[in-house]
């Protein structure tokens, strides 16, 4: 029997100063990836997958991302169909804009939508919650509907408006969660996937989810 010589997928965790990069690195390695933490342009462009973390304020993350040319890297990767995964604020900045404390900041505009305050009795939404995943989701493959994932956020996207308008083009798959109100918990849209929750902090469920993404690389 011949031993497989296939290398594991290479994933870059983009280091632009915001996000749980070490926990993301460990979780991706556990899921079977070869992981590098860097903001190097060539490494980020040539990796099989790019993970964009994010913790903190929308505007601050956008400022750090653009300073590191992350906006350009994400755009170029997606133009070539190269996979990108955004996590937490790394998901939020993919939308058109964020509004925090009455101040508006432009996002990457990969998807239309506004990131706004989460309206609930207890904010931030911190802890474990279930997700409503649509049929056919590859991100949540093998995970039960009652599985819980770890969230830490005070802002969210409350409406999804993007439609392809072309039945030949697969519409994005949008997953939802509820904390006070319903909000977007994850999106699968071609090469661009994202989660509002933290898979790297979600135990075995998060490991399975990251494995599902890595298997697409």
TrEMBL record:
InterPro entries attached to this UniProt entry: Class_I_gatase-like, GATASE, Imidazole-glycPsynth_HisH
Associated pathway: Amino-acid biosynthesis; L-histidine biosynthesis; L-histidine from 5-phospho-alpha-D-ribose 1-diphosphate: step 5/9
HAMAP family given in the database record: HisH
Domain Glutamine amidotransferase: 12-212
PANTHER family (alphabetical): IMIDAZOLE GLYCEROL PHOSPHATE SYNTHASE SUBUNIT HISH
Organism from which the protein derives: Streptomyces physcomitrii
Role summary: IGPS catalyzes the conversion of PRFAR and glutamine to IGP, AICAR and glutamate. The HisH subunit catalyzes the hydrolysis of glutamine to glutamate and ammonia as part of the synthesis of IGP and AICAR. The resulting ammonia molecule is channeled to the active site of HisF.
Gene3D superfamilies documented for this protein: 3.40.50.880
Pfam families, alphabetized: GATase (PF00117)
UniProt-listed PROSITE patterns: GATASE_TYPE_1
Active site annotation, chain numbering: 88 (nucleophile), 198, 200
Name of protein: Imidazole glycerol phosphate synthase subunit HisH
EC number(s) stated in the UniProt entry for this protein: 4.3.2.10, 3.5.1.2
Superkingdom of the organism of origin: Bacteria
Subcellular location as annotated: Cytoplasm
Keywords, sorted A to Z: Amino-acid biosynthesis, Cytoplasm, Glutamine amidotransferase, Histidine biosynthesis, Hydrolase, Lyase
Catalytic activity entry: 5-[(5-phospho-1-deoxy-D-ribulos-1-ylimino)methylamino]-1-(5-phospho-beta-D-ribosyl)imidazole-4-carboxamide + L-glutamine = D-erythro-1-(imidazol-4-yl)glycerol 3-phosphate + 5-amino-1-(5-phospho-beta-D-ribosyl)imidazole-4-carboxamide + L-glutamate + H(+); L-glutamine + H2O = L-glutamate + NH4(+)
Subunit structure as annotated in this protein's UniProt entry: Heterodimer of HisH and HisF.
CDD domains per UniProt: GATase1_IGP_Synthase
Keyword Lyase: yes
């Amino acid at each position: 029997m011949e031993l497989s010589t296939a290398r594991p997928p290479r994933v870059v965790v983009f280091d632009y100063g915001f996000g749980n990069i070490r926990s993301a690195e460990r979780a991706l390695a556990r899921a079977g990836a070869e992981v590098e933490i860097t903001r190097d342009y060539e490494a980020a462009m040539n990796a099989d997958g790019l993970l964009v973390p994010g913790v903190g304020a929308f505007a601050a993350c956008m400022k750090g991302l653009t300073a590191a040319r992350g906006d350009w890297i994400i755009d170029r990767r997606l133009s070539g169909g190269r996979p990108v995964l955004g996590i937490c604020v790394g998901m939020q900045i993919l939308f058109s804009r964020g509004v925090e404390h009455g101040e508006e900041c432009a996002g990457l505009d990969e998807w239309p939508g506004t990131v706004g305050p989460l309206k609930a009795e207890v904010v931030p939404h911190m802890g474990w919650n279930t997700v409503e995943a649509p049929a056919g989701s590859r991100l949540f493959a093998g995970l039960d509907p009652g599985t819980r994932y770890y969230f830490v956020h005070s802002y969210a996207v409350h409406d999804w408006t993007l439609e392809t308008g072309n039945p030949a083009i697969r519409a994005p798959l949008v997953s939802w969660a509820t904390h006070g109100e319903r909000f977007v918990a994850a999106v699968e849209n071609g090469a661009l996937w994202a989660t509002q929750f933290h898979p790297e902090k979600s135990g075995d469920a998060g490991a399975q989810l990251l494995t599902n993404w890595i298997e697409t690389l």
